[in-house]
Amino acid sequence: MTDVSVSAPAKSATAPSPVAPALTATAERRRYDRSIIEGPLRSAVWKIAWPTMLTNIIGGMQGIVDHILVGHLVGYKGNAAIGDAWQIFLIVIAFISSLFIGMGVLVARFAGAGDEEKVDRVVYQAFLTAVGISLLVMAPIGWFASPVLLDLVNAAPQVKAEALPFLRIMFVASVGMMVFFMLGGALRAAGDARTPMILGIALTILNLVLNIVFIRGLGPIPALGTKGAAVGTCIASGSLMIYSLWKLWGGTWVVKFPRGEGYGPDWSIIRALFRFGLPSGIQGIAMNVGGTLMLAFIGSVAQGRAAQAAFAIGYSQLFSLITWTSVGLMGAAAAVAGQNLGAAQPERAEAAVHVAARYGIGGAVFIGLFFLLIPRQLLGVFGMSDPAVLEIGAQLLRVLSVSGLFITIALTYTGGLQGTGDTKSPLYISIVSQIVVPLGICAVIKETGTLQPLHIWIAILVGHVTRCTLSVVRFNQGKWRNIAVDMR
User: Fold this and answer.
1) What is the per-residue pLDDT across 198-232, written as a single tens digit (0 to 9) for each?
2) Residue 20 — pLDDT band, cuts 50, 70, 90?
3) Global confidence as pTM
4) With b meaning 16 or more CB within 10 Å and e meaning fewer, what string describes 358-393?
5) Residue 136: phi, psi to the nearest 5?
6) Is-contact 102 415, C-beta < 8 A?
7) How many Å is the maximal CA-CA distance in the chain?
8) For residue 35, which phi and psi values (nearest 5 degrees)?
9) How many other C-beta atoms can be found within 10 angstroms of the C-beta atom of residue 252?
């Protein structure tokens, strides 16, 4: 097996002509943005972060639009259905996205070292693996397992009737979404965050148009209600996938498909993707399993249906205004830290993560003020008018206004750990903070008294505080500095 470990670019044993180094350096500067490892750190972090945050915000708006349309046309049962279905579907996405975390670790290191050939090989193999898992594993298993998965979250019969077709469509036709996530991660890790932003905006606009058509109906197209949101999403992402494959083959982006090296699987690279990515995949599964089990606790309270609807809007949608920006900063921290570590600059990698965290705190404070001051008005945008739902939802948003500060710090330091190759520590931290702590609190209260929605919201807050604390402590230990990246 070929050892392709990252190191500083070696000098040629044979002295090249004076022109050759200049041409090589020019090509390298043209391919990768070297300001990430050479320029001011704040600018380097912001250059990756702001397009990613904007992409996440705009992309996330399509989910908000879905909820608004479904809330007004179907009712809050439809909101609960989409919330439950997405919570389940995200578990699967988290696992497949683990490949993209592993891909990002490799791409950032190789881009930082200026190794174009290895970058392209990693991207192509990540594409093959993601497509194979999407079509051969996720689609068939998801179709048959969807009813059981909805039972696990205590979905009410009316909610399950709306959620089942939505979830099955997403499982079967999700390959376009997987390729979009893969491509965005590859481009950002290589230093180009603007192209994923443009693609994300195009996807959102197309998805918005298609969802309006399929949810409401238009001409000969019948109104599909909740499942129309899934149809629109899958058609939009599939269309973008076709365009992206054309661009990757043409080689006009900072990452591209390699030519003339064979197009079958390269198991040495795929093993490296799993070695670095699998802990992140298990982490994502753990977090989303924790969320799914939390939905079960929410559904078990006296006002379970109202609490699930409030959670679907307050946490899955409105709280995403904080997590979208934080995930953008997480990606920026991972890319900048990974590239600088690949360029043998660990001090600069560490400083980049601290810069990203400071950006995140400012955004969380700003958005948290809206949660604190006008929670009912925010919920009303989604068609929430039921007094019980409004009361529980406002309670949730006030707690999340504080929780956002901790989760944004946790996510940026998670990005620093993952980007430098330490993908195991965030896994252990997530198991403790997203499963053991919040679910343990809910279980104890349920056994010793009467579980109320507020108890669940406080448990979520305690979990976020725990994750923040452990992530910062682990990153500051600095053990990520000695992680070697190779593909064997």
Assistant:
1) 998 898 888 888 888 887 778 788 878 778 888 88
2) very low
3) 0.77
4) ebbbebbeebbeebeeebeebbeebbbebeebbbbb
5) -95, -20
6) no
7) 80
8) -65, -20
9) 10
